[in-house]
Each structure stands twice: as C-alpha cells, then as structure tokens.
Amino acid sequence: MTDVLEKKKKKKSHFPVRLNLLFFSVFLLFSILILRLGFVQIVYGENFKRELERKEDITIHNPVPRGKMLDRDYNVIVDNVPKRAITYTNMGASQKEMLETAEKLAQLIEKKVDKVTERDKKDFWILKNPERAEALITKDEKALFKAKKLKDNDIYQLKLERIDDELAEITPEEMEVLAIYREFTSGYKFTPQIVKNEDVTAEEFAIVSEHLQSLSGIDTTTDWERAYAHESTLRSILGNVTKTDEGLPADRLDHFLSLGYSRNDRVGKSQLEMQYEDVLHGTKARVKTVTDKAGNVIETEVVSNGKRGKDLVLTVDMDLQNAVEKIIEEELWALKTTPGTALLDRAYVVLMDPNNGEVLTMAGKRLVKNKDTGNLEIQDDALGTITTSYNVGSAVKGATILTGYQTGAITPGTRFDDRAIQIKDTPVKKSYAYLGVLNDVNALKLSSNVYMFHTAFRIGNGVYRFNEPLRLASNTGDMIRNSFASFGLGSRTGIDLPNETTGLKGSSKLPGHIMDLVIGQYDTYSPMQLAQYISTIANGGKRLKPHLVKEIREPIDDTGELGPVFKEIQPTVLNTINAEPGWIERVQLGFEKVYQEPGGTAYKRFLGATYSPAGKTGTAEAFYDGPERSRFGKEPPPVMNLSLVTYAPSKNPKVAMAVIVPWAYQGTTDNGANFRIGRRVLDTYFGMAKSN
What we know:
Among the domains are: about 95-190, Arc Repressor Mutant, subunit A (Orthogonal Bundle), CATH 1.10.10.1230; about 385-540 and about 575-635 and about 640-655, 3-Layer(aba) Sandwich (Beta-lactamase), CATH 3.40.710.10. Helix content is about 35%, strand content about 20%. It has 22 helices and 20 strands. Strands 2, 3, 4, 5, 8, 15 and 16 form a seven-stranded mixed beta sheet that branches. A six-stranded antiparallel beta sheet has the order 11-10-9-20-19-18. Helix 13 (about 320-335) packs antiparallel against helix 22, helix 15 (about 395-405) packs parallel to helix 17 (about 450-460) and helix 16 (about 440-445) packs parallel to helix 21 (about 585-595). The mean pLDDT is about 90.
C-alpha cells in the first residue's frame, strides 16, 4: 500500500514541472515577439510608414503648336488649326489594365479600325485567350522550352503562326477595342499618345471628359494640324510634319532623342519645316503628375504652360508667287497646243533680290498624267528649282567672258572672227549664223558661240588652226568650272533648304566637250544656280547666299499682334568675283545690249519694256531624260532646253530672274517659251511694285 502511494506522489511531482516549463517557453516566445515588434516599431516604423505613404512625382511633357509661317508682308501662309483630341498616357499600367480601359473607352467613342493589322489581331487574340493560345504549343515544344532550347519569343512565334481561323472570332466591337488598345501600346511610358484626333465629335469629347475619373490614363485635350492659306502654292517648299502615328523619323531618331524629344513627337520632316525645326517646335508644356505606390494618380500640377514655336517670316511675296505660278500654268497649257511639245512638261522661275539674296518667288509647275483618267494635271514643283538641273545654253556666256578675263585669255575689247570652227575629225561647230568680227560685248549681245570657243582655246593654251588637231591643257575644264562655281554655277547656292543639287559635271577633257561647256551645253545647272549667277553679275560681283527666311519672330499673341523679332537674317556674301575694275561692267554692258539694242537676242521680245532689263538668253540642244524616257530605248530624242536670265533695271537693279523650260520643243521651230514666261513675269513684278 505504501509503495503504491509513493509511486503516485512521484507522478504528481513531475506534472507541475513540465507545466512550468511549457509556461516558461510560452512566456519566452511572447517576450521575444514583443521585443521584435517593439524593435520593428521603433527602428523601422517610420520607414514602413513612408513606404506605405510613398508618392512618385512624374513630369509629363505635352506638345505645343508649331510656329506659323508668314510671307514678307506678314500674311499668314502656314497656320495651326485646333482639333479635339483624346489621349492616353501610360503611367505603368499592365496589359490587362490597358485592355480594361480600352474596353471602357470603346463604349464612349467611335474608333476607325483601318490601321489594325493581322499581327495586331493575333496579339489581341492571344491576350484574350491565354489558355487556348497555350494549347497551341505541343508537349515536345514545352519540353524544349523547359530544357531552354526554345526561348519565350520562339514559343510566342509558334502561337502566332498557328492562329488562323480563330481571328474570325473577333467581333466588330472587339475590333474597335483592339484599335484603341493598339494606340495605347504604341506610345511610351509617361508620354501622351494620341488615341483619336480625327473627327472627334463634341459629344465624344464631352462624354469622355465626364468619365475621366474611371478612365485611367485618358485625357481630353487640343491637338493641332497644319493649315495652308494658299493650298498647293509653294507646298513643296513649305514642307511637311510627321503624322501622329509616325513620330520621330527613323533616320534621325538619335539626333532628336539627344535633344530631348519624345519618340512619338511630331517634327518637320522636309524642306522649311525640317530646316527650321529647332525654332518651329516650341517649348513643351510641363505637367507634374503625382502617383501613389500602386500607380494611381493622386494629383496633377501644371509646372509650365509651354510656348508655341517661333514664327518664320519668309522672303516670298505670296501675291507675286501666286501670279507667277498662274503665268507658268497658263503658258504650259498654251505651249502644249503648239507643234513639237509632246515632251514638254515643266517650267521654273526664280525671282531674287540681287542686293541681299532674298528669294521673292520660287515657282515650278509640272504636268503629270492622272493614273486613273490618263489626263494631264498640273502639280506644284517649286522644289524642282533646287533639286533638278538642266543644260541651259548661252545663258552662261557672261561667266565664260569673265573667266576669259580672269585667266588672261582675253581682255576687254578682244576681237574674234565668228567663222565656223573645224577641228580635224570632229563635226563643225559654229554660231547660229555668221556674225562677223566681234568684240566681247557684241559677242554677248549677239550670243556668239565661236567667240566663246576661241576664249576656251586660249584658256587651255591651245592653238587653233582650221581642220587641224587641237590640244588643250588637261586642267582646262577644271579651270573653267572653278570660275563658274564662283558665280554659283555647278556649286550649291547655300539656300536654307535641304537636298540642294549641284548639277551634273561632264567627265570628258576632249576639246569638243570643253567647247560645249563654255556655251552651256555640257554641264547642268539648277534654276536657283542660274538666279544666283545672274544676281552676282547684277550686283557687281558679290555671290550672295539665297535665303527664304527673312526673320524669326516670337509667336504672334492672342490679339494677332506680331511678336518681337528674335532673329533677322542678314545678307551673306559667299565670295566676291576676282575681277579688275571695269570687267563686270563690260559684261553688264553686253547684257544690256541683249535686251535693249536692236540685234540683241532678247530685244524684240522685250521691246517696250519700261523697266530697262538686262541679261542673257539661252538655248541648249540636250537629250531627253524625263518621265517618258523609257519608251525611247537607248537613244532618247534630242530636245531643246530654253532659259533666260535677267535683272532690272539695268542700273541699280531691284530684281534678278532665272527661267528654265526644259524640253521646250523638238524640231527647228523655237516656241519662245522662255520669253513668253519671262516677259509676263517681269511685267507682273514691276506692275505690282508700281501699284504698291
């Protein structure tokens, strides 16, 4: 009995010990937990609190309207027309969130689906049907993926390749969602992307504005579109701006990004819009957006309203430009009714102020066939005045005479007999008629080819004898071209436009081709080069850089008042002709006789002109290389190019003009296209100047 009681006591004595150990362990654990919580609260509490309350400031740059373009009389010719626009800014949303927003927006607006591609549809189907898309991948392919023999992109490509009939499942409503979603994903993070800016109705604009709270990333704003007061006039020179879905041009992407542009910014992509992009694009508006940790927008704050681009004041007189273009159009249509004009399809006119290089008119027109009707239509080709070049004929003879003076080949008053030139084993070369014994001035007046040939022979240290071989120094052509370039012939004029041509230079050094060179029938020149050349002679020997921009001004304000001048474009002298006193005056005298003395090649055409013109005419036999070239095989037909260079008045000139009519006629009947256009243009210029 005693033994039994003793065993019970031993058992009871162990139980409280174990229980105490348990309580102690629990107490110890709770103590550690409390200490840990206290440590976290005291040491890290503020950090965690800040993390929970974390905000992120993001600055979004919104585009502003581009600068306007005005003519020399401050009439607006390129403006901005406001357009309602709906934009999306990706603040870090997932694909699912963007898709949900697109679905909501599709209920409020109509969106065209014409830009949606088949690839877009496939991507959209995969996004909407992830499980079915995954089922398109075989077990073997999945195994290869796990073994890292296939990459994510490989698997995705396989899915794309196997989607076919499934695309028919996409409903018209889903297509509209896809078109919107496509715009969302084509933008960049924190950069506004145009979702719709064409035909946004007032109702759409209003209802979207009302629902902005539920449309994450969506905003309603004002976009801008270029508007042209004179429609097609000078359009090829004014240039173009990239469209909303183009963004930065790929070939200049790095350049623009380095200047702080966004990838989807619209920029000038051609001519004046591109040349003066740095002043036309303006300063973007800056909006600070505050988001919470989840990326939700808490508040927005306008940091700066931005500033519209600066305005360009052009040197062009748009009234004169329109009048000249009308003359070219009328004369082209009239000339097409005359014989031998099957290949005639274009004409160019450049008017410059020879004293400062300002381009007053830069006009070109081209006849093209309508692809649908086959009928001829007229198109603006003002750009052709700097991007195309032609043989211009005798118009260059003033440069030939001055080159002769510079090289010592001739001196003022040197005389040559105008008899035909016969070099052994070459065709006879002559003037259009025998003109007698001529000095330099009368050689210009009567347009003697033979006088220019003899000048070239002397430049090249050649000795001409009838029907004997002739040798010229190997650098003769280079000497002549270098001299011509000092007038602007065969070199870039420096005009403030991109992609100017220098013309084509012949490679032959044969005497016959050198003879062609000095009468304008070998190398080719652009209308702008001719205008610079005649301006250089008109002003006494200064080759001025032609320019289309007269002033850069701060933006016109809301009242329509002109902004202050930011920069005035000053005349730039590229070089001065190396000439002794009296040399250029000698050429000017010859040019005056061309127009104002009986026998001059332009005298009859400008008889009665009250503005005292001077200059040179040009006719060049050339080979046709226009749009119909392919139908003639290896032997294009010979055609006649007509040109005219003029300045007026002959003393203290106010205007210089170059006219080129390529492929004016075939055959022997000169239709006088250069005179018909040139006389009307100068009459119009001085008529308008008199009325102002």
